[in-house]
Amino acid sequence: QVHLVQSGGGAVQAGDSLRLSCAASGRTYAIRVMGWFRQAPGQEREFVTGISCIDDSVYSQKDRFIISRDSTKNILYLQMNDLRPEDTAAYYCAATTYWAEDYSADRLYDDWGQGTQVTVSS
């Protein structure tokens, strides 16, 4: 099992930047992909972006959101730039040991961070 602990987030103004972090521990050697999801009130959880822990390939790269990882420290990051009110949501990091052609489905992920709120005001 992999234990994920998130940090970062908070309340910002539109146009600001934030960086989320997700520290992984436990069976990190088994992780194939780590991803970021978000869920706004009343909406389904959606895949934001992901990164391979095998070759650092990025899945669903976004212009304003940049995923990266420090493999030496087992920390996943999400740099969020030019934030907009519609980015307001609870953000979750997740890890999967499965191989898949499409990593956007949350059912693929074994372990999840505790979530962190990002609130963007206009």
Largest sheet: 7 strands, mixed
User: How many alpha or pi helices?
Assistant: 0
Shape: globular
Helix content: under 10%
Task: Explain this structure.
The chain is mainly beta. It is 0% helix and 52% strand. Strands 2, 4, 5, 6, 9, 10 and 11 form a seven-stranded mixed sheet that branches. A four-stranded antiparallel sheet has the order 1-3-8-7, with no helix packed on it. β7 (65-70) and β8 form a beta hairpin. The model has no long low-confidence stretch (mean pLDDT 96).
Concise structural overview:
This protein has 122 residues and is mainly β. The chain has strands at 2-7, 10-13, 18-26, 33-39, 46-52, 58-59, 65-70, 75-80, 89-96, 111-112, 116-121.
Give keywords:
122 residues, mainly beta, 7-stranded mixed sheet, 11 strands, 0% helix, 52% strand
